[in-house]
């Protein structure tokens, strides 16, 4: 059985973070490991997020358990809440990214909230993107990585993809590019230095999308782990997300999430 490590946070509301990652890995019949970096909680009256980083030695011990204690076939990064944690992970990826595929989901925001860690964009840019087989920024994260104020149209999204590739990753998939296109689509932009591919889907007007970014990146990582190319991996991820979002559902009055039934595979 192939093994995959996620280095990411716990989402107490269940839709994102390691919860999404491990659930997705299981659907791909992969054995999932997790190094927990941070615990995210929600205020019950406003749903604003509390962010509680795990101490660095504890994170380091978890990563060692998986990488040195067992061995893995792929690595996925989610929320890494401090530059010190990012630099620690960089140290491991210097050797591991040469051996196995790595997906960097450059998490800087939780949906519906202000940027969680804008001051860490630079650390992600310099320490992590260069290791990525595929990186999966949303529009906000892509602009941060590309050093652009904002992405407001398709041409700017392509420019951001070019700049992100120049940071040293093999491929980039910018999610939700369709939001700045007319008419709105669910388009994601894939670029591997050869051609730009806009992967479109029907636009489903819902805010029940909690965990979408993490789940998309987890599918990409699972596919790479199974030996698919970056382009194939991103395409399958998009198809899986389309199915999940079609059956979105509300957790409460603040947040709703994707469907995770077997058909989601
Ligand atoms: O969707 C971004 C995200 C990533 N990781 C964790 C989260 C969230 C958003 O809530 O809680 C742990």
TrEMBL record:
It comes from Wohlfahrtiimonas chitiniclastica SH04. GO terms for cellular component: cytosol. It catalyses: pyridoxal + ATP = pyridoxal 5'-phosphate + ADP + H(+). Residues 11-258 form the Pyridoxamine kinase/Phosphomethylpyrimidine kinase domain. One of its GO terms (biological process) is thiamine biosynthetic process. Its EC number is 2.7.1.35. InterPro entries: HMP/HMP-P_kinase_dom, PM/HMP-P_kinase-1, Ribokinase-like. SUPFAM superfamilies: Ribokinase-like (SSF53613). Keywords: ATP-binding, Kinase, Magnesium, Metal-binding, Nucleotide-binding, Transferase. GO terms for molecular function: ATP binding; hydroxymethylpyrimidine kinase activity; metal ion binding; phosphomethylpyrimidine kinase activity; pyridoxal kinase activity. Belongs to the ThiD family. This is pyridoxal kinase.
